[in-house]
Structure to design on (152 residues):
Protein backbone atom coordinates (compact mmCIF):
# COMPACT_ATOMS: atom_id res chain seq x y z
CA UNK A 1 0.00 0.00 0.00
CA UNK A 2 1.24 3.48 -0.83
CA UNK A 3 0.27 6.80 0.72
CA UNK A 4 0.60 10.40 -0.45
CA UNK A 5 0.94 12.89 2.38
CA UNK A 6 -0.02 16.59 2.21
CA UNK A 7 3.67 17.48 2.46
CA UNK A 8 4.23 15.87 -0.96
CA UNK A 9 5.96 12.76 0.37
CA UNK A 10 5.13 9.49 -1.35
CA UNK A 11 5.45 6.48 0.93
CA UNK A 12 5.68 3.14 -0.83
CA UNK A 13 6.83 -0.35 -0.01
CA UNK A 14 10.36 0.53 -1.06
CA UNK A 15 10.87 3.93 0.53
CA UNK A 16 9.92 7.56 0.68
CA UNK A 17 9.91 9.87 -2.34
CA UNK A 18 9.64 13.65 -2.05
CA UNK A 19 7.76 15.16 -4.98
CA UNK A 20 6.63 18.68 -5.82
CA UNK A 21 3.23 18.32 -7.46
CA UNK A 22 2.03 21.87 -8.04
CA UNK A 23 2.95 24.71 -10.35
CA UNK A 24 3.82 28.21 -9.23
CA UNK A 25 0.99 29.62 -7.13
CA UNK A 26 -1.23 26.55 -7.57
CA UNK A 27 -2.45 24.36 -4.75
CA UNK A 28 -1.25 20.76 -4.97
CA UNK A 29 -3.79 18.27 -6.25
CA UNK A 30 -2.67 15.21 -4.31
CA UNK A 31 -5.70 12.99 -4.89
CA UNK A 32 -5.22 13.10 -8.70
CA UNK A 33 -2.09 10.88 -8.78
CA UNK A 34 -1.19 7.45 -7.51
CA UNK A 35 2.04 5.50 -7.19
CA UNK A 36 1.74 2.48 -9.45
CA UNK A 37 5.01 0.77 -8.54
CA UNK A 38 8.57 1.33 -7.39
CA UNK A 39 11.69 -0.34 -8.75
CA UNK A 40 15.46 -0.13 -8.33
CA UNK A 41 16.97 2.86 -10.11
CA UNK A 42 18.99 2.21 -13.27
CA UNK A 43 20.63 4.52 -15.77
CA UNK A 44 17.88 5.77 -18.08
CA UNK A 45 19.38 4.22 -21.24
CA UNK A 46 20.31 0.63 -22.03
CA UNK A 47 22.62 -0.05 -24.98
CA UNK A 48 20.92 -2.77 -27.05
CA UNK A 49 22.84 -3.09 -30.29
CA UNK A 50 24.74 -1.78 -33.27
CA UNK A 51 24.01 -2.00 -36.95
CA UNK A 52 24.95 -0.38 -40.26
CA UNK A 53 22.63 2.03 -42.06
CA UNK A 54 22.13 2.25 -45.85
CA UNK A 55 25.26 4.43 -46.22
CA UNK A 56 27.34 1.86 -44.27
CA UNK A 57 27.50 4.21 -41.28
CA UNK A 58 27.43 2.87 -37.73
CA UNK A 59 24.08 3.21 -35.95
CA UNK A 60 23.71 2.42 -32.22
CA UNK A 61 20.40 1.53 -30.53
CA UNK A 62 19.57 2.68 -26.98
CA UNK A 63 16.36 1.82 -25.13
CA UNK A 64 15.10 4.51 -22.77
CA UNK A 65 13.43 3.40 -19.55
CA UNK A 66 10.11 4.76 -20.90
CA UNK A 67 10.21 2.05 -23.59
CA UNK A 68 11.29 4.18 -26.57
CA UNK A 69 14.32 3.31 -28.66
CA UNK A 70 16.78 5.96 -29.88
CA UNK A 71 19.11 5.33 -32.82
CA UNK A 72 22.24 7.50 -32.81
CA UNK A 73 25.62 7.61 -34.48
CA UNK A 74 28.89 8.07 -32.59
CA UNK A 75 29.35 11.79 -31.95
CA UNK A 76 25.61 12.52 -31.77
CA UNK A 77 23.61 13.45 -28.68
CA UNK A 78 21.48 11.12 -26.60
CA UNK A 79 19.48 13.22 -24.14
CA UNK A 80 22.02 15.25 -22.15
CA UNK A 81 24.75 12.77 -23.11
CA UNK A 82 26.91 12.44 -26.22
CA UNK A 83 27.98 9.09 -27.67
CA UNK A 84 31.77 9.32 -27.85
CA UNK A 85 32.92 5.79 -28.65
CA UNK A 86 31.79 2.31 -29.60
CA UNK A 87 33.84 -0.86 -29.24
CA UNK A 88 32.49 -4.00 -30.91
CA UNK A 89 32.98 -7.31 -29.18
CA UNK A 90 31.64 -10.84 -28.85
CA UNK A 91 31.44 -13.51 -26.17
CA UNK A 92 31.54 -17.23 -26.96
CA UNK A 93 28.47 -18.84 -25.35
CA UNK A 94 27.55 -22.52 -25.32
CA UNK A 95 23.97 -23.22 -26.38
CA UNK A 96 22.93 -26.68 -25.07
CA UNK A 97 19.84 -26.93 -27.28
CA UNK A 98 22.01 -26.59 -30.41
CA UNK A 99 24.97 -28.37 -28.85
CA UNK A 100 27.18 -25.62 -30.25
CA UNK A 101 29.16 -22.58 -29.20
CA UNK A 102 27.82 -19.31 -30.60
CA UNK A 103 29.13 -15.74 -30.70
CA UNK A 104 26.96 -13.38 -28.64
CA UNK A 105 27.30 -9.61 -29.25
CA UNK A 106 29.05 -7.86 -26.35
CA UNK A 107 29.86 -4.34 -27.51
CA UNK A 108 30.44 -1.29 -25.33
CA UNK A 109 29.27 2.28 -25.89
CA UNK A 110 30.85 5.22 -24.10
CA UNK A 111 28.77 8.30 -23.28
CA UNK A 112 30.03 11.70 -22.13
CA UNK A 113 27.70 13.52 -19.77
CA UNK A 114 27.44 16.94 -18.21
CA UNK A 115 30.43 17.90 -16.11
CA UNK A 116 32.75 15.50 -17.97
CA UNK A 117 31.09 12.35 -16.56
CA UNK A 118 32.00 9.29 -18.66
CA UNK A 119 29.64 6.30 -18.68
CA UNK A 120 30.35 2.93 -20.31
CA UNK A 121 27.29 0.87 -21.24
CA UNK A 122 27.70 -2.83 -21.99
CA UNK A 123 25.36 -4.28 -24.58
CA UNK A 124 22.06 -5.61 -23.15
CA UNK A 125 23.05 -4.87 -19.52
CA UNK A 126 21.41 -2.30 -17.31
CA UNK A 127 23.70 0.08 -15.46
CA UNK A 128 22.53 0.06 -11.83
CA UNK A 129 22.29 3.32 -9.90
CA UNK A 130 21.71 3.84 -6.19
CA UNK A 131 18.16 4.53 -5.08
CA UNK A 132 14.70 3.76 -6.41
CA UNK A 133 12.29 5.01 -9.10
CA UNK A 134 8.55 5.47 -8.54
CA UNK A 135 6.12 5.23 -11.47
CA UNK A 136 3.18 7.64 -11.07
CA UNK A 137 -0.12 7.75 -12.92
CA UNK A 138 -2.44 10.75 -13.22
CA UNK A 139 -5.97 9.52 -12.54
CA UNK A 140 -7.65 12.39 -14.36
CA UNK A 141 -5.45 12.38 -17.50
CA UNK A 142 -4.05 8.83 -17.59
CA UNK A 143 -0.49 10.17 -18.04
CA UNK A 144 2.42 8.14 -16.66
CA UNK A 145 5.76 9.47 -15.47
CA UNK A 146 8.62 8.43 -13.28
CA UNK A 147 10.38 10.18 -10.41
CA UNK A 148 13.56 9.32 -8.60
CA UNK A 149 14.46 10.08 -5.03
CA UNK A 150 15.11 13.81 -4.51
CA UNK A 151 13.35 14.74 -7.81
CA UNK A 152 11.35 17.98 -7.82
Amino acid sequence: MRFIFPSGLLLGAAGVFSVTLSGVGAAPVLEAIRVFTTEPACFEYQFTGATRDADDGLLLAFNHRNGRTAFVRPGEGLGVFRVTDYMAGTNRVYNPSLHATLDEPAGKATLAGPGGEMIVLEQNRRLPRPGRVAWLVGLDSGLWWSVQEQDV
